[in-house]
């Protein structure tokens, strides 16, 4: 069964217009005017059970609005949503027992009481038996290393400690789908890594489906085999992360340091026919750019066979750069990728 099934989903907000000046404010009092903001524009996607899917896009792209509709907080303007077979905003009671939600910027824990008291309240909200609660809590506390935090009030926890508690809170009732909205925002690399490892383990061992929004693409690299990319309320890419990288990355750069002056003409002659381009940085340094179609080891063996080399460094385009370029162009289609390549190639020569 599909964990999430979304078809032609749309969300429009009505935003009040503010007219200028005192007379405008007076007019606003008597006759309000509204603008329509279309945050999510007829999107469709399906997520099978057990998948970890990244949901990414620039600020204002429509990610949180989608998550809010998927979790039943917002009612869609039009379109269909099924989460675990339920319509989130209609079947609230049955539905919430099977999902967990973490909003990185908001807490589901009570600020002034001990963490364990919040967990006990959530046990009652979700109707979890005392026995199941104890078993699950012990397991989660051990995995997320919460031991001595349980009796502290939430307001006295660091952000990293609170986020680990939020995860426990969202998983106490053993949901099959977990929605995470910016779960690693503001955390240091040690806590980020611990949370990523925990989520991987949860997915592997319990088959939990995870939909994750984040601005940290390392979360995506560490966790997601699939990524859905939004731009201005529309899906501009839905597929594998590797495919996205292959389609968009400019190829690889190899930086060479030679032991003696090696002229550009010699390098170009050596590698003629390989489709590579060269840029001379100094007498001893040059950079070779290889398209994906050229085998790295072929190119390397030709250059190392014909020159005297002191050092070599291979540089891949990183995901942040790739995604930034896609956001910039507003499209992840192959033709946009080709245009971008044509624009950027000369700079590498
Ligand atoms: N309650 C609301 N009323 C009016 N407009 C809204 C409301 N919520 C969101 N919007 C608008 O809808 C658009 C999408 O917002 P949304 O919060 O879903 O984006 P996002 O991708 O989650 O952004 P971010 O990464 O900044 O959290 C934005 O233009 C936003 O201003």
UniProtKB/TrEMBL annotation:
<feature type="domain" description="ABC transporter">
    <location>
        <begin position="24"/>
        <end position="257"/>
    </location>
</feature>
<keyword id="KW-0547">Nucleotide-binding</keyword>
<dbReference type="Pfam" id="PF00005">
    <property type="entry name" value="ABC_tran"/>
</dbReference>
<dbReference type="GO" id="GO:0016887">
    <property type="term" value="F:ATP hydrolysis activity"/>
</dbReference>
<dbReference type="InterPro" id="IPR003439">
    <property type="entry name" value="ABC_transporter-like_ATP-bd"/>
</dbReference>
<protein>
    <submittedName>
        <fullName>ABC transporter ATP-binding protein</fullName>
    </submittedName>
</protein>
<keyword id="KW-0067">ATP-binding</keyword>
<dbReference type="InterPro" id="IPR050763">
    <property type="entry name" value="ABC_transporter_ATP-binding"/>
</dbReference>
<dbReference type="InterPro" id="IPR003593">
    <property type="entry name" value="AAA+_ATPase"/>
</dbReference>
<dbReference type="InterPro" id="IPR027417">
    <property type="entry name" value="P-loop_NTPase"/>
</dbReference>
<keyword id="KW-0813">Transport</keyword>
<dbReference type="GO" id="GO:0005524">
    <property type="term" value="F:ATP binding"/>
</dbReference>
